[in-house]
Each structure stands twice: as structure tokens, then as C-alpha cells.
């Protein structure tokens, strides 16, 4: 499990230690190197290019693996003076939908969501925006959904995090839904069939991951689940409520589809959603608690 310490695209330029989300870039400038002031003839190198590579001329750093490495700048015409900087490369979300007035992904790995009607493959529908947990949130009218990019999750190691505020609770209604086809799917439902519990479930293997509780209508709740090679954990407000094994591998096959608030069959979600994130890999419990706004030792 990994523990993302910052959001994607957040880079700490002003300190000795820089953090960089995997796949993003950081361009050091000569102004960061006081001993080289006025001297732009600098050669750059990385101690571990597998973690972060660097262009030897421009100093453009790109995260290529998770871990830490040292980026060194050497003044070619300054008597060989050097300055070194530690770069920490972390996992950022593969998708981050903030819903701040639009359905755009906050990073460039996947595209924006598109509005659907009352099923994941139907036209029409309306999604508006209102005040949410963080800035704005998406408002679903109970007859609409959002289709997310195909292939949003690929493999059997991933995490889904979202804030939900249901205006009403209806059985089987999905907050998040992903499917290879009509028989192989994963659904995060505020109210499931097992005693109206909030849960993650999957067909056609019919795997239930109930939380032992039902989240309230009219309030914001943070929901998340992580899958790591068949081991699943489901969280409510940062607390683990279910842990199990042998969860179906639905997304290793190419072409899976994804959506919010709708699937092919059930009553669409009515209410609000905010700050929806998908990660490649299983988040640690502390990371999930962090996303829920709860600090843990």
C-alpha cells in the first residue's frame, strides 16, 4: 500500500525537499541554486532515473517510479560547484474530479466526464453544481448520471474515494459503478440489499462487502474502498468497516466502463457528490483517513 502525501500537481518548490506526483514534471530553475546565480551553464543528473529522470540541459524532472532520488546540478564553468536536491516521487490519483463547476479531470491522465440520462448508456440528463465539501459539488437530480472515461481502472489494484450527500436513499442506487459487461461489475451503493447497509457489491460472482451501517440522507459522508489483488476494504468517514478476500477481478480486461449515479438497471442517485478520486493501487488506511479529513497517528 502507498500513502500519497500531497495531491497531484502540488510541488513544493520553496523547500529543500521536493515532492512530485508520478508522471508529472518539475522544472528546477537556476534561481533555486544561489551559488549559481547568473550562471546558466548547468548540467543536471539523477542518482536514480528509474524514480525520476532529468533532462541534463534544461533540468526538467519527470517522475517515473515511486521512491526518492537525488537530483544534482553541476556548474560546468563554475569550478565544478554542485547543489543537490532530494526528490520524493509519490502516487497521485489517476483521476480526480473536483466538480468545481465542471466535470473535468484535474490531471491529464483521463478526460472529462459526460452527462447521461437515467442509465449509463442513455442520452439526456442534467447535472448542476452547488456548494460542496471542497468548493463546489455535482448535483444529481435523480434522473441523470455521469459517464467517466473508459479504462479508468485497469487491473486488480485500485482505490476509489468520493464524498456523497444523498437527498434520498434507494436500494441498489450506485454512487460509483464500473463494469466489464452486464454480468461483471462493481458498485458502491449508499443503500444495498443487505439490511439497507451501505456497501460495495459485485456480480455475477455476487460478492457483498457490507459496512454494517447505512449512511444518512441529507449529510456529507466520505466513502472509499480499496482492492489489492482480491483483498477489499470498505471505509466510511475514514474508518474501515469491511475487510475481505477473493473480491472479483473485474477490471483487468480492457474496455471497462465507469459512471457515477447510474448503471444499466437501477434508480439513479439523487443528491450531491464531491471530490471523486481513483488511484492505481490500494491506499493505506492512513491515506484514506486523510482523504476523509481525519488524522491518524
From TrEMBL:
Keywords: Disulfide bond, Signal. It comes from the Bacteria. InterPro entries: Big_2, ConA-like_dom_sf, Invasin/intimin_cell_adhesion, LamG-like. Residues 156-286 form the LamG-like jellyroll fold domain. This is LamG-like jellyroll fold domain-containing protein. Residues 7-85 form the BIG2 domain. SMART domains: BID_2 (SM00635), LamGL (SM00560). The keyword Disulfide bond applies.
Amino acid at each position: 500500500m502507498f500513502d500519497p502525501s500531497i495531491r497531484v500537481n502540488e510541488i513544493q518548490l520553496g523547500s529543500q525537499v521536493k515532492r512530485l506526483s508520478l508522471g508529472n514534471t518539475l522544472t528546477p530553475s537556476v534561481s533555486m541554486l544561489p551559488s549559481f546565480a547568473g550562471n546558466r551553464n548547468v548540467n543536471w543528473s539523477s542518482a536514480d532515473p528509474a524514480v525520476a529522470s532529468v533532462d541534463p540541459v534544461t533540468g526538467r524532472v519527470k517522475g517515473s517510479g515511486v521512491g526518492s532520488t537525488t537530483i544534482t546540478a553541476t556548474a560546468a564553468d563554475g569550478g565544478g560547484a554542485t547543489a543537490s536536491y532530494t526528490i520524493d516521487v509519490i502516487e497521485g490519483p489517476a483521476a480526480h474530479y473536483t466538480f468545481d463547476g465542471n466535470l473535468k479531470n484535474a490531471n491529464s491522465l483521463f478526460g472529462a466526464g459526460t452527462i447521461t440520462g437515467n442509465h449509463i448508456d442513455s442520452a439526456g440528463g442534467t447535472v448542476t453544481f452547488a456548494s460542496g465539501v471542497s468548493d463546489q459539488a455535482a448535483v444529481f437530480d435523480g434522473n441523470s448520471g455521469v459517464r467517466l472515461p473508459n479504462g479508468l481502472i485497469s487491473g486488480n489494484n485500485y482505490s476509489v474515494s468520493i464524498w456523497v450527500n444523498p437527498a434520498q436513499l434507494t436500494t441498489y442506487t450506485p454512487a460509483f459503478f464500473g463494469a466489464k459487461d452486464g454480468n461483471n461489475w462493481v458498485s458502491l451503493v449508499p443503500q444495498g440489499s443487505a439490511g439497507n447497509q451501505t456497501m460495495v457489491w459485485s456480480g455475477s460472482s455476487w460478492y457483498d462487502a457490507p459496512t454494517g451501517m447505512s449512511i444518512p440522507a441529507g449529510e456529507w459522508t466520505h466513502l472509499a474502498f480499496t482492492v489489492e489483488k482480491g483483498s477489499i476494504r470498505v471505509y466510511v468517514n475514514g474508518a474501515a468497516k469491511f475487510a475481505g478476500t477473493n473480491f472479483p477481478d473485474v477490471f483487468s480486461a480492457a474496455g471497462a466502463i465507469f459512471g457515477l449515479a447510474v448503471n444499466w438497471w437501477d434508480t439513479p442517485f439523487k443528491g450531491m457528490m464531491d471530490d471523486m478520486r481513483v488511484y492505481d493501487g490500494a491506499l493505506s488506511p492512513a491515506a484514506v483517513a486523510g482523504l476523509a479529513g481525519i488524522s491518524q497517528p
